[in-house]
Amino acid sequence: MSTPVSTPSVPDGLRFAFGTLTVLPVTVTRWDRDAARAGMLCAPVAGLVVGLLSAALGLLPLLLGAGPLLAAVATTAVSAVLTRGLHLDGLADTADGLGSGKPAEDALRIMKQSDIGPFGVLALVFVLLAQVAALAEAYGQSWARGALAAVVAATTARLALTLAARTGVPPARPEGLGAAVAGTVPTRYAALVAGLVVCAAGGVSTLLGPYDAVLGTVLAVVLACAAAEALLRHCTRRFGGVTGDVFGALAETAATAALVVLSFG
């Protein structure tokens, strides 16, 4: 008989999400499976706040007369700072682990090392270049499109974490953040959150007017989640499960994919 799922606590979930996924001053009062489940369900809310703050500060260069490229750099930098750079660090470590071509145990050991290898450096360079270029294109179209792209990308990045924490995705290690959140979210809950994020993104994009803007925003969320899912499956096969580094890589992959799709207008 399956164990019934307890109702997640929204306050505990928000504290868990903001306390583990941002640098905002939030105290995590619970660190158990129920709190982790609620936290992963609330992860897109943390992403929404990160996106709003990144967009707000990214718009400052535009208000001061600078061009869209500087606004894009500012937005990307603020997002990295608000997440302690942990997602970027996870991306680099995951790239090193995957690029090593070694068995799972050795690859996981490489990922735990403090230094960054050539695969990690390349991943960081190309991902950050893609994010800045895509945001610059969006800001170049209009400040509203740039701000929307920043918010949608940050929210979708955390939605990818919700989906990756679903039941059936095992942890690669018995300890760490990956083990704490892996498999905590029932698939139906993850699907519900995904549906809410897609509907919200499409609804907000109606403020930009044309139908193709709505379709493009919805498509960006869907394709970003698909890209993160492809990476998740590959990492699960290679490492035997997920780690905190893999979660970071999934977030950056989803954010980059969403920004690239949105840059096409």
Automatic annotation (TrEMBL):
GO MF term set: adenosylcobinamide-GDP ribazoletransferase activity
Segments crossing the lipid bilayer: 38-57, 116-136, 189-208, 214-232, 244-264
Membrane topology: Multi-pass membrane protein
Predominant location category: membrane
Cell location: Cell membrane
Source taxon at top rank: Bacteria
Catalytic activity from the UniProt record: alpha-ribazole + adenosylcob(III)inamide-GDP = adenosylcob(III)alamin + GMP + H(+); alpha-ribazole 5'-phosphate + adenosylcob(III)inamide-GDP = adenosylcob(III)alamin 5'-phosphate + GMP + H(+)
Cofactors that this protein relies on: Mg(2+)
EC identifiers of the protein: 2.7.8.26
EC class of the enzyme, as a word: transferase
InterPro entries: CobS
Pfam family, one: CobS
Keywords: Cell membrane, Cobalamin biosynthesis, Magnesium, Membrane, Transferase, Transmembrane, Transmembrane helix
Pathway it works in: Cofactor biosynthesis; adenosylcobalamin biosynthesis; adenosylcobalamin from cob(II)yrinate a,c-diamide: step 7/7
Family classification: Belongs to the CobS family.
Main function: Joins adenosylcobinamide-GDP and alpha-ribazole to generate adenosylcobalamin (Ado-cobalamin). Also synthesizes adenosylcobalamin 5'-phosphate from adenosylcobinamide-GDP and alpha-ribazole 5'-phosphate.
Record-given protein name: Adenosylcobinamide-GDP ribazoletransferase
Gene source species: Streptomyces bluensis
